[in-house]
From TrEMBL:
PANTHER family documented for this protein: NMRA-LIKE DOMAIN-CONTAINING PROTEIN, QUINONE OXIDOREDUCTASE 2
Top-level lineage group: Bacteria
Family annotation (Gene3D superfamilies): NAD(P)-binding Rossmann-like Domain, UDP-galactose 4-epimerase, domain 1
Organism whose genome encodes this protein: Altericroceibacterium endophyticum
Protein name: NAD(P)H-binding protein
Domain annotation NAD(P)-binding: ranges: 8-188
Amino acid sequence: MGKIIVTGASGAFGGAAARLLLEKCAPEDLIFLSRTPEKLAAFAERGVHCRTADFDDPASLTSAMEGGERMLLISTARVGTRVGQHKNAVDAAVAQGVKHIVYTSLINAHKDDNPAIVKIDHRATEEIIEASGAAWTHLRDSQYAEAIATAMAIPALQMGEKPDNCGDGKVGFVSRDDCVATAVGVLTQDGFENQALPLTGPEALSIPEAMAIVSDMTGKPIDVQPVDDEAMYEYFDAMGAPRHATDIVPDGPIPWSSDDMVTFGESIRKGFFSEVTDCVERVTGRKPKSLREVFEENRHLWPA
């Protein structure tokens, strides 16, 4: 097996994947990329090839990809402009002989009627990879359980209530740890080429059911208030969230748009997140974590 490239190796997902790969591979068989390679110093000290790579600078990518055979392409955060970034990375990788690209996508990104606007960038990137000539694996993650355990549970506990436009739509919440382990499994095993893998946890739950678990664990009631999409926009407006991706201030206080969040909720409501698969266990050999398990791991972050 040739060298494995991890893009964004200084980020949360990339860093976790990098640490897990080091447990399975020789350091000299790993290439970790970052716009801020100084953050990879601990990996470099262990003998990993750590290189500067800026997706907005195609010239920097060509040398960064040299020697790689498989690549984990972690989607960047810049909704609306990241497709061009991803294409730069794919083009450079293929030019340098990368044979297999594993991409972190979104569940049901391929369905035209999925209203979540975040799927637009993901599907466009999937199509670029499929047309590149390299083998591909799309890791179509469901919603991260950690996001529910922190970004949703903490304010809900503080306020005692949560407006929500997801209705009774179910979600196969998946732990980011399980998504990382699956990515590493695909990179280090054969047999997953040219497949899209929907990654989910072991059960599908609605947002009210998820918040009921939080209430049960803390003894604090949380009133989930069903609202329509317009009321959800008004809620995010009151928080100061930008409406559109184009309004997001780089490195600003809120890195997502209400368009993104409201259409994500609509997608859940319409059933695009409801499936439960065995893909995590099939790749990793272990059962995925439940939402309650992830809540237990993050409970120390909750308000007392």
